[in-house]
Amino acid sequence: MQKVTLIKDGFTLRAVKCPDCNNIIIHPQDEGEYNQFISLKNKTFKVKMRMVGNSYAVSIPKEIVEFMHEQEKMMNDMVNLCFEESKKLRLMFD
Length: 94
Description:
The protein is of the alpha+beta class. The protein has helices at residues 28-41, 62-70, and strands at residues 2-8, 11-17, 24-26, 49-52, 55-58, 80-85, 88-92.
């Protein structure tokens, strides 16, 4: 078995690959985190938009914040917000 790295939806997954049969086994911890991401990605959250001072605020559901903490993302950092399409905003944490 040879160690390999796979990239899926921005995730780096550790794996081993058999050189004879090309069978790939993904590290269980990486696979679990990726599956948790997929289940969150397929969910739609309804959140309220509120007026805070002269701006509007949207709350981020606890499930998403907890997942990001597990991924060691830094909260309280500045984020990028931009229009992706009409009626569609993109929020980027990197």
